[in-house]
Amino acid sequence: MLKRKRLLFAIAAILPTLAIFFWVRIIPIGEILRLSVHKWDLLSRNKPFIGLENFRELFADHLFWEALRNTSIIAFGVLLLTIPTAMVISALIYHRTKSRFAGFYETSVFIPHVASLVPAAMAWKWIFDARLGPLNAFLGMFGIQPQAWLFDPTLSLISIIILCSWQALGYAVIIYLVGFKNLPNSLFEAARLDGASAPQSFWFISMPMLKPITLYVSVVTLVSAFNVYAQVFVLASDAQGAPGRQVRVLVLDMLENAFRNYRVGYAASEAVVLLAIVLVLTFIQFTLLREKGARS
């Protein structure tokens, strides 16, 4: 009887959260799926059903493929830059936990993650400025010519990857620190007695035991990077100053099609493709890390 009351209490406690999650997450996804097979201009009441026509048009659109390519480059670039850097920084901070500056280190690393996106992007836009930016001034000390970071398509992608990685790094470091603090010290002491160096202990003990943390951080980082928007909007202006035009990404392309071109059904089909890509990549990450964990 007591177990039943506890179960009913738990269900009653979690129902409001589930209801809110269903309302703000599941219902919008269902609405996007429905709109993706309809034609709608955002203004009229009529939404004729057109089947897969939006998807046929989407996959024949070179602008969509350009946006998908740029988004994928940014997402995987952020992932490859953030995860190793976060692991190294968190390991260094962990070994300084007895220092009175440990809290300062953690706060300093985490601040970029909670900073507002637009002011942070504006600050980085000044850093990357071709004429007045400190980055080109620093590179000039080594004889490197000033680079058009925000106007060259390739350099614009690199700039966005750097900015997104800088913002994602703090969260990843804090999560890795939690993992490091829960590792058993007995393993490291045994490795030290066997003559293992600090890099060897990190590679053969810390990294395998932190695979669940790596899985979580990689999934969160990749999903967030695929939804990149504000950073591109601020940094990647074209020669005429139009925001986000230098580097076309999926979210900006969706917003442009929905609210500038009034092609809501077409934009919804882009959102469905983005959702499918994120789900597939998440499944692949879970599968690969589980297989590696089973082998080890």
What does this structure look like?
The chain is an all-alpha fold and 296 residues long. The chain has one domain: MetI-like (MetI-like fold). The chain has 13 helices and no strands. Helix 3 packs parallel to helix 7, helix 3 runs antiparallel to helix 10 and helix 4 packs across helix 7. The chain starts with a helix and ends with a helix.
CATH hierarchy, class: Mainly Alpha
* Shape verdict: globular
CATH architecture descriptor text: Orthogonal Bundle
How many strands? Answer: 0
Evaluate the radius of gyration: 23 Å
Distance N terminus to C terminus? Answer: 44 Å
GO biological process, one term: transmembrane transport
Main location: membrane
Protein name: Bicyclomycin resistance protein
Membrane topology: Multi-pass membrane protein
SSE layout and pairings?
Layout: H1 2-35, H2 53-59, H3 62-94, H4 102-114, H5 117-127, H6 134-140, H7 153-181, H8 185-193, H9 198-209, H10 211-226, H11 230-235, H12 250-259, H13 264-295
Helix pairs in contact: 1-13, 2-13, 3-7, 3-10, 4-7, 7-10, 10-13, 12-13
Question: What is the gist of this entry?
Answer:
The protein has 296 residues and is mainly alpha-helical. 74% of the residues lie in helices and 0% in strands.
What key phrases describe this protein's structure?
296 residues; mainly alpha; MetI-like fold; transmembrane; membrane; ABC_transporter_permease
